[in-house]
Amino acid sequence: MIYFWAFVVGGIICTIGQLLMDKAKLTPGHTMTTLVVSGAILDGLGLYEPLIDFAGAGATVPITSFGNSLVHGAMAEAEQRGIIGVITGIFEVTSAGISAAIIFSFLAALVFKPKG
């Protein structure tokens, strides 16, 4: 049943993103920013963790989870290190994902050549 709910929740998040682009005429950059900020706000309100517990990968794979990670890391480090933890927590939690994206993008650029 967890696969079903992951599919449904992930699909709803993606549908919201698509509707933002189609109906609200937002650019992909604006849509992505809106979804990241939405995930951050939901985590700040304590609503995103229960969604992750309920839907698993359906809530952790979409871009809203990046906003969740930013706020979650900042709040956790702020409790331990104070105001400086807000900045360091953001980098600590998200650095692995960002580093992986950069490395794999570079490797893909080496392997696949664009047709011009």
Automatic annotation (TrEMBL):
Assigned keywords, A-Z: Membrane, Transmembrane, Transmembrane helix
Descriptive protein name: Stage V sporulation protein AE
Transmembrane region(s): 83-112
Superkingdom of this protein's organism: Bacteria
InterPro entries: Spore_V_AE, SpoVA
Signal sequence coordinates: none
NCBIfam families in UniProt: spore_V_AE
A Pfam cross-reference name: SpoVAC_SpoVAEB
